[in-house]
Amino acid sequence: MSKAVREVALDILLQIEKSQAYSNLLLNQTVKNSKLDQRDVGLLTEIVYGTIQRRDTLDYYLTPFVKKGVKSLDDWVRVLLRLSIYQLIYLDRVPDRAIVHEAVTIAKKRGHQGISGMVNGVLRSFQRQGAPSLSEIKDPIERLALEMSFPTWLIKRWIEQYGEAETRAMCESSLVPPTVTVRVNRLKASVEHVVTMLQEEGIKANPGYLSEDAIVIEKGNVFQTETYKQGFITAQDESSMLVGRAVDAYSGMDVIDVCAAPGGKSTHIAEQMDNEGQLLSFDLHDHKIKLIKEQANRLGLTNLESNVMDARNISAQLGTKTFDRVLVDAPCTGLGVIRRKPDIKWTKKESDIQSIQRIQLDILEAVAPHVKQGGKLIYSTCTIDKWENEETVQAFLAKNKEFKLDHSLSDRLPSKVIEQGRYQNGLVTILPHDFQTDGFFIASMVRG
Ligand SMILES: C[S@@+](CC[C@H](N)C(=O)[O-])C[C@H]1O[C@@H](n2cnc3c(N)ncnc32)[C@H](O)[C@@H]1O
Predict the structure, then answer these.
(1) Would you list the domain boundaries of the chain?
(2) Using CA atoms, how far apart are residues 234 and 295, in angstroms rounded to an integer?
(3) Residue among 182, 259, 333 whose CB has most ligand 1 atoms within 8 A, to mutate
(4) pLDDT in tens, 111-126
């Protein structure tokens, strides 16, 4: 049973490494096409995420045991050793003997006698001698980076922006498995009612901690339930739900969401508009529009219309049309959702921040004339990098004097966020460890 799981894990990890495939998408796809049972899926998920999350720490631990150097190993051997060491250190439910035996069996199957002997030798030496201490690393930034398994540039950047304690807390929270949360479709039922419906279908669920629309799923596959299929709920993180509330849209308004796919926030806004008025949901990519439409159909939303558009060319497509609310849930580095997509920390480069900020600013500039006088422009990201957040907003405001920060945003945020001290003058940043949610940034601006 578990031998198959480890081979599948090895293949997924190799694919992520080679083609920079997204871990969550690849894992979901593999699980869908496999015959693995629920327990095996749990183990597979744990090994894949854990090995990516702890990649650099695992390589550091392996270093004294691999004479020719971890980097010079064939990719598959390095990944096999990583995932085996990960299990030896962090998983209690599999006996160490079985972990080593299975690694050696896989090595025999994929390589020659010498390689399986080497894998056996490395893992047995590691068992005997244990992991080398990280305290030998003198440089504090390098030590924290290896301890938490984060790239040094990111640790440095976060320390500059948030200080050492917050950086450590953010890293630690990214190593904890993410919670599954869903948003209740208020057009159909209340949170309490949906919790009962889910319990009747064998799902352990509780009202959310941060968002008034959220339900936290403790146990069970919620996406197989009738409650889900009949459009009572949508998968969404609790901090992401705060964006929909920040938009402050109600029935009869003209609203536009220019970076809308796969539709998490658009469908939330459409629900708050009581399925009335007009919500236009656009995205750059044609194939993603289908996802928005599927969600809107499932949820029974008829006030939402979706189409392809490059937000930077909005005027060419919509002329001079203006809206009461404009949402820019911008493309970003995703540095707030590393807990959910751990590969982000290895694939993003520091230079990506600057190039993505250019796109964010271009989108804001292009949509600004389409905000009605007295209307609101909401800018959100799932990154916590200040350059993509506060700096982007300040740069936009400096050039667009008719916009001001909207201080009424605080009225639409949960009191917990204000008490945490994360709100300031129309801007809010939620760090991943604040409430064990995704990291998020929201700015609300009003056109004078
Ligand atoms: C953070 S995601 C949006 C998530 C979405 N709002 C939700 O809640 O489900 C950013 C989206 O922006 C889209 N995008 C990137 N550049 C764009 C552009 N120039 N114009 C419109 N959409 C763009 C991407 O395809 C991606 O779907």
Answers:
(1) 2-132, 143-174, 180-235, 238-447
(2) 8
(3) 259
(4) 888 999 999 999 999 9
